[in-house]
Write a structure and sequence with these properties.
224 residues, alpha/beta, Rossmann fold, Arc Repressor Mutant, subunit A, 4-stranded antiparallel β-sheet, 8 helices, DNA-binding
Length: 224
């Protein structure tokens, strides 16, 4: 699961990044609205954690721009303001959740996972495609009821496909999910990981389908 953290307090952002990475999230962190807008225009994220008080432009402006562009990435506002008016304004602008600082890390992590699940169309912690299941709480896969243990990049790839099940994911989006911001990667490297995953899913009813010129799709095998 890939997150964008937009927080101008660098000490807080370093701590949050470390905490979230310990929970197996992949986190990119920026400290101002301009950089947030640039990344959101070109990168794929499963959720955005957005502070409201930023240098030069507010977090609300980032949120408004995102929604004007019809970008439906889930947004959780993280702010020191407990104003009801501010909360209502953010939710009406398009925020999906709102947490007031200081907060408990366990609650933050649980609400991030719930936010991503809802965006994926699931009301429960378990996501599934045919006989492939994924527990978003434990971050574990099961295939036909048995644990499916994967190396980190294959895990990130299958997680991204399952979170976006039924949607075509471009190679660019998948590369961002697998390799992260600034990592040196190529489409050839991505194709190697796709090939390895396909071999591990040979006995599964879930299949990774290639849509030429578009990307990849995870779908039940009989529908492929």
């Amino acid at each position: 699961m890939r997150l964008l953290l937009v927080e101008d307090n660098q000490e807080l952002s370093r701590w949050l990044c470390a905490v979230l990475q310990e929970e197996a999230f992949q986190v990119d962190c920026v400290h101002d609205a301009e950089m947030a807008n640039a990344l959101l225009a070109g990168e794929h994220y499963d959720a955005v954690l957005l502070d409201l008080k930023l240098p030069n432009a507010s977090g609300q402006s980032v949120l408004r721009r995102l929604r004007r562009q019809q970008n439906q990435t889930p947004v959780m506002v993280l702010t020191a303001s407990d104003s009801l008016d501010m909360k209502v304004e953010c939710l009406e602008t398009g925020a999906d959740d709102y947490m007031v600082k200081p907060f408990e890390v366990r609650e933050l992590v649980a609400r991030i996972k719930a936010l991503i699940r809802r965006h994926s169309g699931s009301a429960t912690p378990t996501l599934g495609c045919a006989d492939l299941n994924y527990d978003t709480n434990t971050r574990q896969f099961q295939l036909s009821g048995r644990p499916l243990t994967l190396p980190p990049r294959e895990h990130s790839l299958l997680e991204a496909l399952l979170l976006n099940q039924g949607k075509t994911m471009s190679k660019a989006s998948l590369m961002q999910s697998v390799f992260g911001l600034g990592a040196e990667a190529s489409e050839d490297a991505l194709e190697i990981y796709v090939h390895r995953l396909r071999r591990k899913l040979e006995s599964s009813q879930a299949a990774i389908v290639t849509l030429r010129g578009l990307g990849y799709l995870l779908t039940p095998r009989q529908a492929s």
